[in-house]
Amino acid sequence: MKDGKFYVNGKETSTYTFKMDYYWMMGDNRQGSQDSRFWGFVPEDRIVGKAWMIWFSWEGGPRWKRLFRIVK
């Protein structure tokens, strides 16, 4: 962004379509993790592995029935 206008590869633009999905990665050590808060969204082709367990779930408080459940 420069002077209130957006640029992609040096050309002014008003729209942009991402070529792949991007994901927000959250570390398990909130204060010490270098995760998406540090380096931003991760492109789909850079993700190695797959989530298999819900470690923690929060929505206005802990959702106890979801903790430590296997992802289907």
Topology:
Layout lengths: L5 E3 L2 E3 L8 E2 L12 H4 L2 E2 L9 E2 L14 E2 L2
Please state how the strands of the largest beta sheet are arranged side by side.
Answer: 1-2
Helix content: under 10%
Structural class: mainly beta
Poorly predicted sequence stretches spanning 5 or more consecutive residues: none
Q: Determine the mean pLDDT.
A: 89
Q: Give the N-terminus to C-terminus distance in angstroms.
A: 41 Å
Order of helices and strands: EEEHEEE
Question: How many extended strands?
Answer: 6
Shape: elongated
* Beta strand %: 15-25%
Radius of gyration: 17 Å
Q: Major sheet: size, sense and barrel closure?
A: 2 strands, antiparallel
**Tally of separate helices:** 1
Task: Give a description of the structure.
The strands form 3 sheets. The chain has a two-stranded antiparallel sheet. Strands 3-4 form a two-stranded antiparallel sheet. By secondary structure, the chain is mainly β. A hairpin with a 2-residue loop joins strand 1 and strand 2. It is built from 1 helix and 6 strands, in the order E-E-E-H-E-E-E. It is elongated and about 50 Å long. It has one helix at residues 36-39; strands spanning 6-8, 11-13, 22-23, 42-43, 53-54, 69-70.
For the structure shown, list the relevant keywords.
72 residues; two-stranded antiparallel ribbon
